[in-house]
Every structure is written in structure tokens, then in C-alpha cells.
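Sync notes, pocket subgroup
Present: LS, DG
LS reminded everyone that the earlier model was apo-only. Rerun requested with guanosine-5'-diphosphate included. Inputs:
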Amino acid sequence: MATRNAQGPTVVLVGRPNVGKSTLFNRITGVRRAIVTPVPGTTRDVNAQPAEWQGAHFTLVDTGGVFGANEDPLHELVVEHGMRAIASADAIVFVVDGRQGVVPGDEEIAKTIRPMGVPVILAVNKTDDKRARARLAEFHELGFEPVLEIAAEHGEGVADLLDDVMTHVKRSRQETGKDTAAKEEPKETSVAIIGRPNVGKSSLVNRLLKEERVMVSDMPGTTRDPIDTVLRFHGHDLRIVDTAGIRRAGKVASAAAVESLSVLLARRAITRADVAVLLLDATEGPTDQDAAIAGEAERVGCGVIIVANKWDLMKGQGEDTAKRFDDEVRRRFKFLDFAPILHISAATGERTPKLLEMIEKVAKSRMHRVPTAALNRFIEAVTTAHAPVSPGKREVRVLYASQTAVAPPEFVVFTNVATTFHFSYERFLVNRLRDSFGFVGTPIRLHVRRRGGRARNEAAKP
Ligand code: GDP
Ligand code: GDP
């Protein structure tokens, strides 16, 4: 089904047995293949056919007996296929039987498809019957707009339905085309420059002030030193939070006081930051205190960039100095495996422009939203190739996923049974998400939830 989706837009029909899905399917595709049967619950696998409306081509999928009690041992598989087809569709046509009004089965379906984030068009069928027309208002309760009246058997209302469907398909495809672009561009990016005393924080701030245009400073008059500094870079504002604190820290009291102050400052700064720049002293390599400061950033969900400063002092130490340094960082900061590593010199300005570019990139990643259709094509491909292990008696199947938040990006993966994923499987999924959708330098949270149920593991995952 993933390949079909990759070729063109997909529209799925969902609904209880006997509401008229296959009648509508045949009407739209002009195919007589699907068996029309008045017997509720007859198993039919997911059926897909090419269709066309006013020159626009799409694939129409009838999810058959996906919703509805079934004794067939293969039913679980049918459900799995069906769920994926639904979650990766560009539009859902939810067919209900107008003569019966809203029944619990309809509410169940509504509950399943709503969190998928796919546009839903509610089609009240059999409105050729008087009884159906009398109950139309009820269907607004299901919470989907628009509610369209059709009579699939006679073709009434089907043209309007298709007009509506195609509008949604077009919109969905435009959004999918922008997969790699951030939809919610941050107007301003807040950056915390954190690190132990003497790693070069204030040198870096001074360097940036010298080279970039300083726009405004926060809260004039309230303190002697401005709290933040805002730079303009590539037409985008970068707010360096707690600039005053950074520049003052080196000048106070004893070494011990400075030490704890730097952790305190880091903690305060990152709560206001989108991206934390964790500065390390390249000549000393990563230390435990660096790790403590980095841990704070990851916990609050900041983007993180690891920056080895004073790289000018590392020159002439052999070809693979950078690689050795990075390996050591990766070994020490396992929980920051998502953070890019840069090597700069605040003193000479070497690669500081590159750092600014990376800040922009990480900030964008953190706000990135993956369109539902694209996400579910990804989920299908990845979980088909590598299924999660099933700890219990029942086989764990990944049905679909949806992105529930940005800053940092958060995903919920829906499964057939309540379960938790093994740590390594979660890491695998998160890493694949990163590679596939270009999430750079941002933590990603992942939750696993049974379809229609509550999440079991809500813990933050890097
Ligand atoms: P499915 O199980 O949802 O695929 O439903 P079917 O397409 O098999 O239809 C179930 C029954 O409803 C069949 O007897 C159809 O003839 C009937 N039906 C379908 N559409 C209409 C309609 O527009 N009006 C009326 N009155 N009956 C319909
Ligand atoms: P902070 O305490 O983290 O703000 O660190 P500072 O910016 O005060 O820098 C501490 C010391 O490191 C100072 O002597 C700086 O001149 C020096 N320093 C900072 N950045 C660099 C760099 O890129 N290269 C070299 N060689 N020295 C640096």
C-alpha cells in the first residue's frame, strides 16, 4: 500500500458494514468487482482501484470489513492493513447509514479516525429514503464537517462529494510537497550559550557582536546591562538569552562560586531558549560538568548543538583530531546523540558563521511538522521492514502514528494492543524519523498508545 500511496493521492471509504461503502466504491470507480452484500460483517479485504474526477486521478480504497466484529482469524491483519491505508490517506470519506441515525459503531469509528489528522468528509448515505432525511441533523454530533447527503445507489450527491474530496486532496498534497519546509517558522530564535567557566562563552558572544548586526537589547533601563542581545542573521532574529550573565560570570568571586553559577545560569537560560549551544573547551575534551549542563538542555526539550571551542589550538595535531574528539563526545554524552558537533574558534572567528547557520537549522527542525500522510507512509515502510517484538501473547502491530506537538516534535504511535516498545526499538524509530524528515539537533519525544486507549510510556525520549 505504501507504493500505491507514493504514486498518487489516496481516498479511503470507512464505515460500518452495510452502510453502502461498496455501492459508493463501485459508483465512483465504475468497477463491478466488489461484492455488494446485505449481510453485515462479511469479510472483505481492503480493496483499491484507480479513479478519476474531473481530470484528477486518485486511488479509491474501500476498507471493507475493517470496522465491525469479526471471527475471522485473519481479521487482525485486515484491520492492520485498513488502519494504515486510512492513516496514510489524503482524505477519508466516512460513510454512515442515514436510516439508522448515529449508532455506537459510528462513534467508535469517529474516535479512531479523529486523531489521525486526515481530513474527514462525512457522507450520510441512503438519503433517498425519507427516514434518512429526517435524521440528518444527528450526524453533526460526530464532529466532522462537512456533512453531505448522498444516495450511493442512485448516484445522488456523489458529484458534490467528489468535489469536496478533491479540494481536500489538493490541499493535502500541497502540504506533503512541503515536507522539508517548516510550516511554523519561528519569528525569533532564542539561543542559550552554556558551558563551564573559561570555555569561551563571553568570547563567543563578543565575536558574534563584532561580526553580526546587533539589533536591540531587551529591557532597557531595568538593569545596567541588557539581559539579552538580539542579532540579525540572514534576516532572522537570534536572541542570545542571558548575555549579561554570560559576560559577568567570569568576573565574580571564587572559582567554586563561578562553577555553580555557570550551572545555575545554564538552567535559567535554557528554559527561555529554543536552542542551547553547549560550549566545550577543545583542549580539555568533554568533562562531567559539561555532561551535567548538557543534561539540563535535553530535559527541557531544547535543540542542542555541541560546540568545541578553541579549535585554533588543536591545529597541527594530526588529521583525525576532529574525529577522535567527536568519538569521545559521543561516548560521554550518549543521550545527546542527536546533537551536531561543530569545531570553532571564538578567538579567530573560524566557523562562527557556520554555527549561526546550524542554530537556524536546528530551530527549524524543532518546529517541523510532518504531514500525516507522509508520516504514515513512513510508519508503514519502517514497521513492515522491522516490526516491534511482542512481549505478550498477542502480536504487537503498529497501526498508525500522528505528530502531536512541535518544539520539541512529539509523536504518538498507535498499536493494536497496549504495550511499551523496547528501548532499542524506540531509538530505532526515532532515528529513522530523524533521517527521513530531516530533524537536526532536536530531541524527539515518542509515545506508544493502544488505539483508542491511553499511553503507557509517556517518558521523554531523546
Ligand atoms: P458496505 O457493507 O458498507 O460495503 O455496504 P454495501 O455497499 O454492501 O450496501 C449495503 C446495502 O445497502 C445493500 O443492500 C445496498 O443495496 C444498500 N444501499 C447502498 N446504498 C444505498 C442507497 O443509497 N440507498 C438505499 N436505499 N440503499 C442503499
Ligand atoms: P567564559 O568563562 O566561558 O565566558 O570564557 P571566556 O570567553 O572568558 O574565555 C576564557 C579564556 O579562553 C580567555 O582567556 C579567552 O581569551 C580564551 N578563549 C576563548 N575562546 C578562545 C578560542 O577560540 N581560542 C583560544 N585560543 N582561546 C580562547
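DG: The pocket of guanosine-5'-diphosphate (ligand 1) is lined by residues 15, 17-23, 36-38, 125-126, 128-129, 151-153 (CB under 6 Å).
LS: The chain has a mean pLDDT of 82.
Action: DG to write up.
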